[in-house]
Design goal:
By secondary structure, the protein is an alpha/beta fold. The protein folds into 2 domains: about 190 residues, 3-Layer(aba) Sandwich (Rossmann fold); about 160 residues, Rossmann fold. Helix content is about 40%, strand content about 15%. It is built from 15 helices and 13 strands. The chain has a 7-stranded parallel beta sheet, sandwiched between helices. The longest helix is centred in the N-terminal third of the chain and has 22 residues. The protein is globular. The two termini are about 35 Å apart.
């Protein structure tokens, strides 16, 4: 039995990993070890470790690493705490493989610890680009520490190979978020309204806006512009989900809370969970903000996405995605566009570039058959000499 240690630090990331974790549990040749860290363990962010447990998973270790600061100093100290905690995890659990997803600083700490402990790493959703945030550098750094790579598209696969990874260890499996759409029975409109405590209006929008870490205009400025554009809307219900624990995240918390307190057509949720979140996408007219889910999952619902700013710049996008700069007038113009007959008609034929689901099953099959002997000794694949 291969001991596969899965690390999760955020609600969104767990939503992508859930079916891989279930597949590992059901496998006759894999043994799941689960480590929970980051936002999952923070009451401020909804204590979402409880959602993980409610799905029947046993948490083997918790690594506390969130400090009560979202400054660059605070985030850096969080990474240091994570390194200390994950060093103990590698020593105690002795995994045969660590499986991680994405590009956040919590996952960077796990990757560094595994690398130094000489534990092979499997990395999910590498090769992608988010040029407006520090996640870009973190993601590619994790790629260079990893040994097995599961990517969403051919373009992302080529990018991982360009970074010097052996093609035989880079697998295109599609977007993991699409497995949620296939496997979860979504709530109908009435049940969702009762669950969330509000009534949908004629028009409805789902807003998730995360901090920006590399852009010229601050997160606070961009949120101010977004809220100003939303303030102009009539007969529209606004559903906010809170941002991640990135630099300046708490400023956004305060802005959203103030806006919702002053508007009876708005609600805010620290964490909707995957079921309610996807059910909301199915019921709203569009997803607004800068979350990756607007690019990877929303197109499968044939719904519009307004992608604000550069946080997701570089990602592959469906034609249902409208890019706009983080200014009130541009956001207002994008909001008008999504309701035009021509655009609405186009939505019905949208194809999601991240596939149609099934990534989790493909990953499990590869994990079961992968030979991990000496895999930590990597050779650089130079595309100029092939």
């Amino acid at each position: 039995m291969k001991k596969v240690c899965v690390v999760t630090g955020t609600r969104a990331e767990y939503g992508l990993l859930r079916w891989v974790m279930e597949g590992i549990e059901k496998s006759s040749s894999l043994n799941l070890q689960l480590v929970v860290t980051g936002m999952h363990l923070s009451p401020e962010f909804g204590l979402t470790v409880n959602e993980i447990k409610s799905h029947g998973f046993v948490v083997d270790r918790c690594v506390e690493m969130i400090v009560s600061s979202d400054t660059p100093t605070g985030i850096t100290k969080s990474i240091g705490l994570g390194l200390t905690g994950f060093a103990d995890v590698m020593s105690d659990l002795q995994p045969d493989l660590v499986l991680i997803l994405g590009d956040r600083y919590e996952i960077l700490a796990a990757a560094i610890s595994a690398m130094i402990a000489r534990v092979p790493l499997a990395h999910l959703h590498g090769g992608e680009a988010t040029e407006g945030s520090i996640d870009e550098a973190i993601r590619h750094s994790i790629t260079k520490m990893s040994h097995l790579h599961f990517v969403a598209t051919d373009e992302y696969r080529n990018r991982v190979i360009q970074l010097g990874e052996q093609p035989d260890n880079v697998y295109k499996v599609g977007g993991l978020g699409l497995d949620n759409i296939s496997n979860i029975e979504l709530l109908d409109r009435k049940t969702l309204e009762e669950s969330l405590g509000f009534k949908f209006k004629k028009r409805n929008l789902l807003i998730t806006f995360h901090p920006v870490t590399l852009e010229n205009k601050s997160s606070q400025f961009q949120m101010t512009e977004l809220l100003a554009a939303l303030d102009d809307l009539e007969d529209t219900y606004l559903i906010f989900t809170m941002p991640n624990s990135d630099t300046d995240g708490r400023i956004l918390f305060q802005q959203i809370d103030k806006f919702v307190s002053e508007h009876n057509n708005a609600s805010v949720f620290t964490s909707l969970g995957q079921l309610k979140y996807l059910s909301c996408i199915a019921q709203v007219d569009a997803v607004i903000g800068n979350s990756s889910s607007g690019l990877t999952e929303t197109p499968s619902f044939k719904k519009a996405t307004i992608n604000i700013g550069d946080r997701q710049r570089g990602r592959i996008k469906a034609e249902s995605v409208i890019d706009c700069i983080p200014e009130r007038s541009a956001i207002s113009n994008a909001l008008e566009k999504i309701y035009l007959d021509e655009f609405q008609h186009k939505l019905s034929s949208i194809v999601n570039p991240y596939g149609e689901g099934g990534a989790s099953e493909l990953i499990i099959g590869i994990l079961e058959s992968a030979n991990l002997d000496d895999i930590v000794k990597k050779s650089f694949y130079d595309i100029n000499f092939q």
